[in-house]
Write a structure and sequence with these properties.
By secondary structure, the chain is an alpha+beta fold. Helix content is 26%, strand content 31%. The protein contains seven helices and 19 strands. Strands 2, 6, 7, 8, 9, 10, 11, 12, 15, 16, 17 and 19 form a twelve-stranded mixed sheet that branches. Strands 3-4-5 form a three-stranded antiparallel sheet, with helices on one face. A two-stranded antiparallel sheet has the order 1-18. Helix 1 packs across helix 3. Belongs to the TRAFAC class myosin-kinesin ATPase superfamily. Kinesin family.
Amino acid sequence: MKQSKVNIQVVVRVRPTSSPATKSLGYCNGEREIMYKRHTPIAGKETYKQYYFDKVYHPTSTQEEVYKGTVSPIIKQFLNGFSCTVFAYGPTGTGKTYTMEGPSGPSGSEKTTEITAESGMIPRAIHEIFTTLEKSKSDYTVKISHLEVYKEELYDLLAGKKQTLRLLTRRSKRKGATDKIEAVVHGLQEFTVTNSSEVLDHLRKSSHERSVAETFSNRASSRSHCIFTITTLIKETTRDGQELLKTAKLHLVDLAGSEGADACIGKDGKVNYQRKAESTKINLSLLTLGSVIRNIAEGNPHVPYLDSNLTKLLSESLGGRTFTCLIATVSLDAGSKEATKSTLQYAQMAKTIKNTPEQNERMTKKLV
């Protein structure tokens, strides 16, 4: 079933300042607006540019508030048969991985499956999905996969040992899908799971495989883009005895952060050439993502999905058939002005993108 066009949901989460004495270049004005200082004063006076979003989460906002206000409604659409995407976007060191995974991520040493105050969007989503399915009277199958894009190469994080994957693309043949592509990752393993504890065990193992390193702005900076995917097949029996099958994919995406030139300078003041190569690829894919957002927002006939593996993978989430939510993380500290301004601009443009979600359901047969 096709929905009418809906705008991508865009929310902004503001990281707390690094210290009380840190100079701020902006402030949150209510629940939907950020005021950010213009670089060039007007008539000799400091002025602020207004940025509006679906929701602005202040530095004091909790993980629970972000989840309930933004992600939980997406999970409900997913369980109703709509494919969905939630991705965190923003400069390095602004809390993307904390938001998506929590303080130590699924790879932490704790073996509990309980949701704590600091649990991120991914474990909370897993918990809600299985809690809902277990309470239902439906038959269901749940599968997971975990993919990393590192220096434009694709790796399977659940394979036990990192395996390089091939990304196959083709032009979409769907009616009205001008300039859209379909992307399939050849060789990506899917694991069938039966409960949230099993999923978190897989995630702890796969998160250890993710490429991270210490950088100028972050002690454990993500050096890759990661896409964790949950696929459900739900079988229900209607009142007239027919079987209804609903299938959907949920992509939970933690993007690496955009970085400046100082990201590849070590503590000894020398250039770390591995970090430099990583930063170059990270920034290239994020620039392409920004270009995709800008071209869709401006209504340009050509959208450069094919210019990076990241945008190939996210093509359905940007102007496609999914419910999509972008969580933009920013710092209002003075030292982050260029990265923050760029993030706010692209996030505001993304708000204008419209998707056309389709419910993936079909009747199979009437039971005797």
